[in-house]
């Protein structure tokens, strides 16, 4: 089973390491204990939205970016865990659109068009 807290912890750790920051540095800036931040990064604790916002602030990264990365990782994990489409009975298959969605609501999201077109 895919655990959201583990994917979230992985993304937070990856961001921190990319910035060459220590757990102590980030925990001090985020005003969270070193041990708790470590548990969040290891996927052992569920972080509240307030705590996530504080950690993201300490990392200088918008919460929306972190959640987007987690969402992308979650989608990949689901795809890897899902059975091949041909193995699914017809009634369990998701409908595949015949046309690529367009319109102003998709203008800011070219990757959505690319994913649907693929």
From TrEMBL:
<protein>
    <recommendedName>
        <fullName>HTH cro/C1-type domain-containing protein</fullName>
    </recommendedName>
</protein>
<dbReference type="InterPro" id="IPR001387">
    <property type="entry name" value="Cro/C1-type_HTH"/>
</dbReference>
<dbReference type="Pfam" id="PF01381">
    <property type="entry name" value="HTH_3"/>
</dbReference>
<dbReference type="InterPro" id="IPR010982">
    <property type="entry name" value="Lambda_DNA-bd_dom_sf"/>
</dbReference>
<feature type="domain" description="HTH cro/C1-type">
    <location>
        <begin position="12"/>
        <end position="66"/>
    </location>
</feature>
């Amino acid at each position: 089973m895919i655990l959201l807290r583990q994917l979230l912890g992985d993304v937070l750790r990856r961001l921190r390491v990319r910035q060459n920051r220590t757990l102590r540095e980030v925990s001090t800036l985020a005003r969270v204990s070193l041990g708790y931040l470590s548990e969040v990064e290891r996927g052992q604790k569920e972080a509240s939205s307030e705590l996530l916002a504080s950690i993201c602030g300490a990392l200088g990264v918008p919460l929306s970016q972190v959640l987007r990365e987690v969402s992308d990782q979650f989608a990949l994990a689901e795809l890897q865990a899902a059975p091949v489409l041909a193995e699914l009975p017809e009634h369990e298959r998701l409908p595949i659109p015949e046309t690529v969605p367009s319109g102003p609501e998709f203008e800011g999201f070219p990757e959505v068009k690319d994913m649907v077109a693929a």
